[in-house]
Specification:
With about 325 residues, the chain is an alpha/beta fold. It has a single domain, classed as Protein of unknown function UPF0759 (TIM Barrel). The chain is built from 13 helices and eight strands. A six-stranded parallel β-sheet has the order 1-8-7-6-5-4. Strands 2-3 form a two-stranded parallel ribbon. Strand 5, helix 8 and strand 6 form a beta-alpha-beta unit. Helix 11 crosses helix 13. It is globular and about 55 Å long. The two termini are about 40 Å apart.
């Protein structure tokens, strides 16, 4: 039988057909328009998906238990959005049962972008009690090729064609570590698209983007506390000559520059409405999407609740601007 949409594909998920009489959600964006963009290689989604504050707009609500919501949420999400970031793999290695769940809960044309576990991307453990004896010490597994292949790359192969790309988040990458970065990416398998997200503003230079081009890595333009605006990152990227490449583009709109993560969590929960509009970043994202379409280039956009207060509403605002003119 020919499948025409994500909603068509959802009908085969009998393992999640639990009784729920709540009304259908009403997302603050046109899901059909998002699917049309995805068909052109432009995937717009959120950085994660398990938020009860989205009930009524992404999720039906009326769940009999938290366990039911946890089982059903991703399937419901895929009815309206074509892609999602998989952030939980940043905190723990991808386990087979979770990888199997991601496959069972998503249609084949859905795209998952896992974040590489911080045991690989963190050079030094934070000085906090949860790290025990390792608190404040150097991480011996930083950019360990064999550990990455065995503990991360092998398990996620289960996701197959659903993988849109892998995020490597480096929170404190230093220029002196770039040679090690080069060695790492020259030694690992390259069948999957890798995207590099850094949060070190001093490294946002034409030289850095030229290095990514040499290594055939995709930059992840991001909005974060200490980072320059996305438009400034894009300007340096475009000036580096990397625009001539055809690697996919990635955007992670996470926080307004100058705002801390903890402040955003306190201010924005339960993430069901926009509480602090940030139109500048929306325009930056729209411009990148338009450039990707012009170049016939794949592009993945991930929006976080902590950017404005509600990722689905931010997506709605982005789509409205994208469709204007």
């Amino acid at each position: 039988m020919k499948v025409n949409s994500w909603r068509d594909q959802q009908e085969s998920f009998s393992f999640l057909n639990e009784k729920n009489t709540a009304p259908d959600p009403r997302p603050p964006f046109d899901a059909l328009e998002l699917s049309r963009l995805a068909a052109q290689g432009i995937y717009i989604g959120t950085s994660s998906w398990k938020y009860r504050g989205w009930e009524g707009m992404i999720y039906r609500g009326g769940y009999s238990s938290e366990a039911q919501f946890q089982r059903q949420s991703l399937r419901e999400y895929t009815s309206y959005l074509p892609s999602v970031g998989v952030d939980f793999t940043f905190y723990t290695w991808p386990m087979p049962d979770m990888m199997n769940y991601l496959v069972e809960a998503t249609p084949e044309n859905f795209r998952l972008c896992p974040k590489v576990t911080k045991r690989i991307t963190m050079d030094k453990f934070p000085q906090i009690p949860s790290y025990g004896k390792w608190a404040g010490k150097e991480n011996p597994d930083f950019l360990d090729v064999e550990l990455f292949k065995e503990q991360f790359l092998n398990p996620i192969q289960t996701l197959g064609s659903r993988i849109g790309g892998l995020f490597f988040e480096f929170t404190q990458l230093q220029e002196t570590q770039l040679p090690k970065l080069e060695r790492f990416f020259s030694e690992i398998p390259r069948e999957i698209t890798y995207s590099i997200e850094i949060r070190s503003p001093e490294l946002i230079t034409k030289k850095f983007y030229s290095l990514l081009r040499t290594l055939k890595l995709s930059p992840a333009f991001n909005s974060w506390s200490r980072m320059p605006f996305i438009r400034d990152q894009w300007k340096l990227y475009a000036g580096s000559g990397a625009m001539e490449d055809n690697t996919p583009l990635f955007v992670r709109a996470l926080l307004r520059p100058g705002r801390s993560y903890d402040e955003a969590v306190r201010f924005f929960q339960p993430y069901n409405s926009i509480k602090d509009s940030f139109p500048e970043v929306r325009t930056d994202i729209v411009n990148i999407v338009r450039e990707a379409k012009k170049q016939n280039r794949k592009c993945f956009i991930f929006i976080n609740n902590r950017l404005e207060g509600s990722a689905p509403h931010t997506i709605g605002a982005i789509m409205q601007e994208l469709n204007a003119n």
